[in-house]
Amino acid sequence: MDLDRAARQWRQDGFVILPGYLSEETLRPAVAELDLLFPSAQGFHDGTDPRRDRFLGDEFAGIDSFPFAATQISLLAVHDDLLRLATTLLGGDDLRLYSAEAWAKYTGAADYDQDLHRDYLNHTVLVPSTAAEFRQLEMFIFLVDVPEDLGPPHLVPKTHTANLDAKPNWLTRRALADLDETGFVASSHSHLYEREVSAAGPAGTVVAFELGTFHRGTGLTRPGGARYSMHVNYRRAAAEWGNRQAWADRSHEPAWYRFVAHAGPRQLELFGFPPPGHPYWTDDTLAGVALRYPGLDLTPWREGQSATRRAATDSDSR
Ligand SMILES: O=C(O)CCC(=O)C(=O)O
């Protein structure tokens, strides 16, 4: 699917499913490092991987967050193909990555079957906006094939949910044992489960959806099965209220230093690094950043500073 068509679909439905959007070649380095994060399906199910207990009983226990122990998985979260898609869907290239997670699920480890919901309660301090500049983009990326029995996400097209209020946010299928007095959970709109679209697809599939789109995780039923995916979130720079993680808080982790050594200006700008030519870059800050990140090639930022200086000298001498 071409990206303009994808953008039309995402505006219409609140999501677009791009089967196999990331090529096998693009995925390969990240998939090759999955074992640095998670047990294989076999290692989990035959009990030979000592890390397996972590995944039991809690559907979210299989989530690792950026920066990942596997540098290639960190690099996949900011791959050019994802940035191209995010730029098209969000209508601008002043992007920020506001969260990135890798997630392993194993059949039988936990109950992954969720109620329909939106994610905004831990992605913004406000509510989702559909204004082009303020949209928040969520992307599920399948690192392996995810057929129906390996728990693909299901999503409901916006045409069926456009009139729903900010509350309730979780729409349960079954009557609630206790009334939720906060109003965030309700057993209403159960007909929406019949409107779901499954995102089942091959490795490399990207499911791009807006923060206001109702969706849910589904259960894994395949015996001995495992699902590996990533969940990355982008927004435009101006939508500062959309956040999940403060990157500076993680920027003294070895995994962050390893990532930075492989990244360039475009990737680092996603985390708030000022671009080359920005007034932040002075002799002092360049020298300090060189000391902090000996693995980072600062040439683009040094060249940016020189270009800014030349432009200033030219305009003074006119
Ligand atoms: O992992 C999935 O397929 C969906 C999970 C989800 O929607 C969530 O946890 O909010």
Automatic annotation (TrEMBL):
Pfam families: PhyH. It comes from the Bacteria. Keywords: Dioxygenase, Oxidoreductase. One of its GO terms (molecular function) is 2-oxoglutarate-dependent dioxygenase activity. Gene3D superfamilies: q2cbj1_9rhob like domain (2.60.120.620). InterPro entries: Phytyl_CoA_dOase-like (IPR008775). PANTHER family: ECTOINE DIOXYGENASE (PTHR20883:SF48), PHYTANOYL-COA DIOXYGENASE DOMAIN CONTAINING 1 (PTHR20883). This is Phytanoyl-CoA dioxygenase family protein. It comes from Actinomadura soli.
